[in-house]
Amino acid sequence: MIIDCHGHYTTSPPEHEAWRTRQIEALANGTTVPPRPSISDEQISETIRNAQLRVQRERGIDLTIFSPRAAGMGHHLGDANANALWSAECNDLIHRVVSLFPQDFIGVCQLPQAPGVNPANCIPELRRCVEELGFIGCNLNPDPSGGHWSGPPMTDRHWYPLYEALVDLDVPAMIHVSSSCNPNFHATGAHYINGDTSVFMQLLTGNLFADFPTLKFIIPHGGGAVPYHWGRYRGLAQDMKQPLLSEHLLNNVFFDTCVYHQPGAELLARVIPAKNILFASETIGAVQGIDPETGHHFDDTRRYIDGIAWLATEDKQRIFEDNARAVYPRLGARLEQQLSMQGVAS
Ligand SMILES: [Zn+2]
Protein backbone atom coordinates (compact mmCIF):
# COMPACT_ATOMS: atom_id res chain seq x y z
CA MET A 1 0.00 0.00 0.00
CA ILE A 2 1.24 3.51 -0.77
CA ILE A 3 0.20 6.15 1.73
CA ASP A 4 0.81 9.84 1.00
CA CYS A 5 0.92 11.58 4.38
CA HIS A 6 0.75 15.13 3.04
CA GLY A 7 -2.10 16.33 0.82
CA HIS A 8 -4.19 19.50 1.10
CA TYR A 9 -7.61 20.29 -0.36
CA THR A 10 -6.29 23.03 -2.63
CA THR A 11 -9.08 22.61 -5.18
CA SER A 12 -12.02 23.23 -2.84
CA PRO A 13 -15.12 24.89 -4.36
CA PRO A 14 -14.57 28.67 -4.67
CA GLU A 15 -17.45 29.44 -2.28
CA HIS A 16 -15.34 28.03 0.54
CA GLU A 17 -12.44 30.50 0.46
CA ALA A 18 -14.72 33.33 -0.70
CA TRP A 19 -16.55 32.94 2.60
CA ARG A 20 -13.28 33.31 4.52
CA THR A 21 -12.55 36.54 2.62
CA ARG A 22 -15.98 37.91 3.55
CA GLN A 23 -15.51 36.78 7.15
CA ILE A 24 -12.20 38.67 7.46
CA GLU A 25 -13.74 41.76 5.80
CA ALA A 26 -16.65 41.64 8.25
CA LEU A 27 -14.19 41.38 11.13
CA ALA A 28 -12.28 44.42 9.88
CA ASN A 29 -15.46 46.47 9.26
CA GLY A 30 -17.28 45.41 12.41
CA THR A 31 -20.18 44.04 10.33
CA THR A 32 -22.04 40.73 10.63
CA VAL A 33 -20.25 37.64 9.36
CA PRO A 34 -22.27 36.05 6.52
CA PRO A 35 -23.71 32.54 7.06
CA ARG A 36 -21.43 29.63 6.25
CA PRO A 37 -21.48 28.70 2.56
CA SER A 38 -23.68 25.99 1.14
CA ILE A 39 -21.62 23.49 -0.86
CA SER A 40 -23.14 20.38 -2.42
CA ASP A 41 -21.74 16.84 -2.41
CA GLU A 42 -21.63 17.04 -6.21
CA GLN A 43 -19.36 20.10 -6.05
CA ILE A 44 -17.02 18.38 -3.62
CA SER A 45 -17.01 15.19 -5.64
CA GLU A 46 -16.21 17.05 -8.85
CA THR A 47 -13.33 19.03 -7.33
CA ILE A 48 -11.81 15.81 -6.00
CA ARG A 49 -12.40 13.43 -8.92
CA ASN A 50 -10.96 15.81 -11.51
CA ALA A 51 -7.97 16.82 -9.42
CA GLN A 52 -6.54 15.12 -6.36
CA LEU A 53 -8.04 11.68 -6.98
CA ARG A 54 -7.10 11.66 -10.66
CA VAL A 55 -3.46 12.46 -9.84
CA GLN A 56 -3.43 9.99 -6.97
CA ARG A 57 -4.68 7.15 -9.17
CA GLU A 58 -2.34 8.03 -12.06
CA ARG A 59 0.59 7.75 -9.66
CA GLY A 60 -0.58 4.58 -7.91
CA ILE A 61 -1.10 6.20 -4.50
CA ASP A 62 -3.68 4.28 -2.49
CA LEU A 63 -4.49 6.70 0.30
CA THR A 64 -3.82 10.37 1.07
CA ILE A 65 -3.79 11.81 4.57
CA PHE A 66 -5.76 14.92 3.66
CA SER A 67 -6.02 18.29 5.36
CA PRO A 68 -7.29 21.79 4.60
CA ARG A 69 -5.17 24.03 2.37
CA ALA A 70 -2.21 25.10 4.52
CA ALA A 71 -1.76 28.57 3.05
CA GLY A 72 -5.50 29.08 3.57
CA MET A 73 -5.28 28.59 7.35
CA GLY A 74 -4.19 32.23 7.67
CA HIS A 75 -4.00 32.23 11.45
CA HIS A 76 -2.63 35.79 11.36
CA LEU A 77 -5.71 37.08 9.52
CA GLY A 78 -8.42 36.44 12.09
CA ASP A 79 -8.85 36.44 15.85
CA ALA A 80 -9.38 33.26 17.86
CA ASN A 81 -13.17 33.29 17.34
CA ALA A 82 -13.00 33.91 13.61
CA ASN A 83 -10.32 31.25 13.23
CA ALA A 84 -12.40 28.78 15.25
CA LEU A 85 -15.30 29.20 12.84
CA TRP A 86 -12.99 28.98 9.83
CA SER A 87 -11.24 25.85 11.15
CA ALA A 88 -14.59 24.17 11.75
CA GLU A 89 -15.65 25.05 8.21
CA CYS A 90 -12.40 23.69 6.73
CA ASN A 91 -12.42 20.53 8.84
CA ASP A 92 -16.07 19.81 8.09
CA LEU A 93 -15.25 20.05 4.39
CA ILE A 94 -12.39 17.54 4.79
CA HIS A 95 -14.76 15.26 6.67
CA ARG A 96 -17.18 15.41 3.74
CA VAL A 97 -14.38 14.51 1.30
CA VAL A 98 -13.41 11.54 3.46
CA SER A 99 -17.07 10.47 3.77
CA LEU A 100 -17.49 10.59 -0.02
CA PHE A 101 -14.18 8.80 -0.72
CA PRO A 102 -13.45 6.69 2.37
CA GLN A 103 -11.04 4.35 0.57
CA ASP A 104 -8.92 7.19 -0.82
CA PHE A 105 -8.65 9.78 1.95
CA ILE A 106 -8.36 10.08 5.69
CA GLY A 107 -8.56 13.39 7.54
CA VAL A 108 -6.08 15.62 9.34
CA CYS A 109 -7.38 18.84 10.87
CA GLN A 110 -6.54 22.51 10.89
CA LEU A 111 -6.38 24.12 14.34
CA PRO A 112 -7.94 27.48 15.29
CA GLN A 113 -4.66 29.04 16.38
CA ALA A 114 -4.28 32.81 16.60
CA PRO A 115 -1.26 35.03 17.31
CA GLY A 116 -0.77 35.63 21.03
CA VAL A 117 -3.51 33.17 22.01
CA ASN A 118 -2.68 30.13 24.10
CA PRO A 119 -2.95 27.05 21.86
CA ALA A 120 -5.04 25.35 24.55
CA ASN A 121 -7.91 27.07 22.72
CA CYS A 122 -7.41 24.47 19.95
CA ILE A 123 -8.15 21.43 22.11
CA PRO A 124 -11.95 21.34 21.66
CA GLU A 125 -11.65 21.43 17.84
CA LEU A 126 -8.84 18.84 17.91
CA ARG A 127 -10.99 16.54 20.04
CA ARG A 128 -14.06 17.05 17.86
CA CYS A 129 -12.07 16.18 14.72
CA VAL A 130 -10.41 13.09 16.19
CA GLU A 131 -13.21 11.72 18.33
CA GLU A 132 -16.25 12.67 16.26
CA LEU A 133 -14.96 12.99 12.68
CA GLY A 134 -12.37 10.18 12.76
CA PHE A 135 -9.36 12.36 11.94
CA ILE A 136 -5.90 10.93 12.67
CA GLY A 137 -3.73 14.01 13.22
CA CYS A 138 -3.48 17.77 12.94
CA ASN A 139 -1.44 20.47 11.27
CA LEU A 140 0.24 22.63 13.86
CA ASN A 141 1.45 26.11 12.87
CA PRO A 142 4.67 27.02 14.74
CA ASP A 143 4.23 30.66 13.70
CA PRO A 144 0.62 31.83 13.79
CA SER A 145 1.87 35.38 13.22
CA GLY A 146 2.47 34.47 9.56
CA GLY A 147 6.16 35.23 9.20
CA HIS A 148 7.06 37.41 12.19
CA TRP A 149 7.70 34.59 14.68
CA SER A 150 6.26 36.63 17.52
CA GLY A 151 5.32 33.64 19.70
CA PRO A 152 7.46 31.37 21.88
CA PRO A 153 9.36 28.37 20.45
CA MET A 154 7.65 25.01 20.29
CA THR A 155 9.58 23.71 23.28
CA ASP A 156 8.01 26.39 25.49
CA ARG A 157 5.42 25.42 28.10
CA HIS A 158 2.99 27.69 26.24
CA TRP A 159 2.36 24.70 23.94
CA TYR A 160 2.14 22.01 26.63
CA PRO A 161 -1.66 21.84 27.08
CA LEU A 162 -2.04 21.11 23.38
CA TYR A 163 0.74 18.49 23.49
CA GLU A 164 -1.02 16.81 26.42
CA ALA A 165 -4.15 16.54 24.28
CA LEU A 166 -2.17 15.15 21.31
CA VAL A 167 -0.60 12.49 23.53
CA ASP A 168 -3.93 11.69 25.14
CA LEU A 169 -5.59 11.24 21.73
CA ASP A 170 -2.53 9.41 20.33
CA VAL A 171 -2.32 11.61 17.24
CA PRO A 172 0.75 13.28 15.72
CA ALA A 173 1.10 16.85 14.50
CA MET A 174 2.55 17.90 11.18
CA ILE A 175 4.52 21.09 11.75
CA HIS A 176 3.16 23.35 9.04
CA VAL A 177 3.20 27.11 8.73
CA SER A 178 0.56 28.96 6.72
CA SER A 179 0.90 31.89 4.34
CA SER A 180 3.41 34.64 4.97
CA CYS A 181 2.43 38.25 5.60
CA ASN A 182 6.11 39.22 5.66
CA PRO A 183 7.30 40.05 2.11
CA ASN A 184 10.81 38.91 3.02
CA PHE A 185 9.56 35.34 3.08
CA HIS A 186 7.88 33.82 0.06
CA ALA A 187 5.28 31.42 1.48
CA THR A 188 6.15 28.08 -0.11
CA GLY A 189 9.71 28.89 -1.19
CA ALA A 190 11.04 30.38 2.03
CA HIS A 191 8.50 30.55 4.89
CA TYR A 192 7.60 26.84 4.70
CA ILE A 193 11.21 25.69 4.56
CA ASN A 194 12.23 28.18 7.27
CA GLY A 195 9.44 26.88 9.50
CA ASP A 196 10.57 23.28 9.10
CA THR A 197 14.21 24.10 9.73
CA SER A 198 13.54 26.49 12.62
CA VAL A 199 11.36 24.05 14.52
CA PHE A 200 13.91 21.26 14.15
CA MET A 201 16.53 23.55 15.71
CA GLN A 202 14.13 24.50 18.53
CA LEU A 203 13.63 20.81 19.26
CA LEU A 204 17.37 20.19 19.15
CA THR A 205 18.04 23.01 21.60
CA GLY A 206 15.31 21.99 24.04
CA ASN A 207 14.33 18.78 25.72
CA LEU A 208 10.66 18.51 24.82
CA PHE A 209 10.53 14.75 24.33
CA ALA A 210 11.79 14.09 27.84
CA ASP A 211 8.48 15.60 28.95
CA PHE A 212 6.46 14.00 26.11
CA PRO A 213 8.17 10.74 25.14
CA THR A 214 5.28 9.60 22.91
CA LEU A 215 4.60 12.91 21.16
CA LYS A 216 5.25 12.72 17.41
CA PHE A 217 5.93 15.50 14.92
CA ILE A 218 6.20 15.22 11.16
CA ILE A 219 8.44 17.91 9.71
CA PRO A 220 7.32 18.21 6.09
CA HIS A 221 8.98 19.41 2.88
CA GLY A 222 11.76 16.89 3.35
CA GLY A 223 12.63 18.34 6.75
CA GLY A 224 13.43 21.78 5.32
CA ALA A 225 17.19 22.31 5.21
CA VAL A 226 17.85 19.77 7.96
CA PRO A 227 18.96 16.62 6.08
CA TYR A 228 21.29 18.66 3.85
CA HIS A 229 22.93 20.18 6.94
CA TRP A 230 22.79 17.09 9.13
CA GLY A 231 26.46 17.42 10.08
CA ARG A 232 25.86 20.97 11.29
CA TYR A 233 23.01 19.83 13.49
CA ARG A 234 24.92 16.86 14.88
CA GLY A 235 27.84 19.15 15.63
CA LEU A 236 25.68 21.81 17.28
CA ALA A 237 24.00 19.16 19.45
CA GLN A 238 27.43 17.88 20.48
CA ASP A 239 28.66 21.38 21.35
CA MET A 240 25.53 21.96 23.41
CA LYS A 241 26.12 18.70 25.29
CA GLN A 242 22.83 17.36 23.98
CA PRO A 243 22.43 13.62 23.39
CA LEU A 244 23.00 12.08 19.96
CA LEU A 245 20.23 13.18 17.60
CA SER A 246 19.24 9.55 17.10
CA GLU A 247 18.29 9.40 20.79
CA HIS A 248 17.37 13.04 21.32
CA LEU A 249 14.93 13.51 18.42
CA LEU A 250 14.58 10.53 16.12
CA ASN A 251 12.10 8.62 18.25
CA ASN A 252 9.70 11.54 17.87
CA VAL A 253 10.52 13.50 14.73
CA PHE A 254 9.81 12.32 11.20
CA PHE A 255 10.44 13.85 7.78
CA ASP A 256 8.35 13.54 4.64
CA THR A 257 9.56 13.08 1.07
CA CYS A 258 8.35 16.36 -0.44
CA VAL A 259 11.68 17.05 -2.07
CA TYR A 260 11.08 17.60 -5.73
CA HIS A 261 14.13 16.10 -7.40
CA GLN A 262 16.00 12.79 -7.43
CA PRO A 263 19.27 13.94 -5.79
CA GLY A 264 17.31 15.54 -2.93
CA ALA A 265 15.36 12.36 -2.28
CA GLU A 266 18.58 10.32 -2.38
CA LEU A 267 20.24 12.65 0.13
CA LEU A 268 17.25 12.39 2.44
CA ALA A 269 17.34 8.60 2.32
CA ARG A 270 21.14 8.50 2.81
CA VAL A 271 21.17 10.79 5.81
CA ILE A 272 17.94 10.10 7.68
CA PRO A 273 17.13 6.56 8.86
CA ALA A 274 14.35 4.94 6.79
CA LYS A 275 12.25 4.55 9.94
CA ASN A 276 12.01 8.36 10.13
CA ILE A 277 10.87 9.01 6.55
CA LEU A 278 7.23 9.09 5.45
CA PHE A 279 6.20 9.12 1.82
CA ALA A 280 4.45 12.34 0.74
CA SER A 281 4.00 14.48 -2.34
CA GLU A 282 1.94 17.48 -1.18
CA THR A 283 -0.18 17.28 -4.30
CA ILE A 284 -1.92 19.30 -5.52
CA GLY A 285 0.26 21.93 -4.01
CA ALA A 286 3.16 24.28 -4.15
CA VAL A 287 4.97 23.00 -7.24
CA GLN A 288 2.67 21.75 -9.97
CA GLY A 289 4.77 21.99 -13.15
CA ILE A 290 6.64 19.44 -15.21
CA ASP A 291 10.40 19.20 -14.80
CA PRO A 292 11.88 19.75 -18.28
CA GLU A 293 14.90 17.67 -17.26
CA THR A 294 12.82 14.56 -16.59
CA GLY A 295 9.53 15.15 -18.38
CA HIS A 296 7.66 14.29 -15.15
CA HIS A 297 5.87 16.43 -12.61
CA PHE A 298 8.18 17.80 -9.94
CA ASP A 299 5.74 16.61 -7.26
CA ASP A 300 5.53 13.04 -8.56
CA THR A 301 7.71 12.04 -5.63
CA ARG A 302 6.97 8.32 -5.87
CA ARG A 303 9.35 8.17 -8.84
CA TYR A 304 12.21 9.45 -6.71
CA ILE A 305 11.76 6.84 -3.98
CA ASP A 306 11.24 4.05 -6.52
CA GLY A 307 14.31 5.38 -8.32
CA ILE A 308 16.75 5.00 -5.42
CA ALA A 309 18.45 1.84 -6.66
CA TRP A 310 20.49 1.23 -3.49
CA LEU A 311 17.58 1.60 -1.04
CA ALA A 312 16.52 -1.78 0.36
CA THR A 313 13.04 -3.05 -0.48
CA GLU A 314 12.21 -3.22 3.25
CA ASP A 315 13.17 0.43 3.63
CA LYS A 316 10.94 1.43 0.70
CA GLN A 317 8.11 -0.52 2.34
CA ARG A 318 8.71 1.43 5.55
CA ILE A 319 8.69 4.76 3.72
CA PHE A 320 5.61 4.01 1.60
CA GLU A 321 3.44 2.40 4.26
CA ASP A 322 4.75 1.06 7.55
CA ASN A 323 5.99 4.34 9.01
CA ALA A 324 2.69 6.09 8.33
CA ARG A 325 0.86 3.34 10.22
CA ALA A 326 3.29 3.69 13.13
CA VAL A 327 3.32 7.49 13.31
CA TYR A 328 -0.47 7.77 12.92
CA PRO A 329 -1.68 4.96 15.23
CA ARG A 330 -5.31 5.73 14.43
CA LEU A 331 -4.59 5.12 10.75
CA GLY A 332 -3.51 1.54 11.38
CA ALA A 333 -6.65 0.91 13.41
CA ARG A 334 -8.82 2.39 10.67
CA LEU A 335 -7.18 0.33 7.90
CA GLU A 336 -7.52 -2.88 9.89
CA GLN A 337 -11.18 -2.07 10.49
CA GLN A 338 -11.71 -1.50 6.73
CA LEU A 339 -9.93 -4.76 5.94
CA SER A 340 -12.02 -6.77 8.37
CA MET A 341 -15.21 -5.17 6.97
CA GLN A 342 -14.11 -6.15 3.45
CA GLY A 343 -13.45 -9.66 4.76
CA VAL A 344 -16.96 -9.83 6.17
CA ALA A 345 -18.41 -8.48 2.89
CA SER A 346 -16.59 -11.06 0.78
ZN1 LIG B 1 1.66 21.18 3.05
UniProtKB/TrEMBL annotation:
GO process annotations (BP): secondary metabolic process
UniProt-listed InterPro entries: ACMSD, Amidohydro-rel, Metal_Hydrolase
GO cellular component annotations of the record: cytoplasm
Single Gene Ontology MF annotation: carboxy-lyase activity
Keywords: Hydrolase, Lyase
Keyword Membrane carried by entry: no
Name the UniProt record assigns to this protein: Amidohydrolase 2
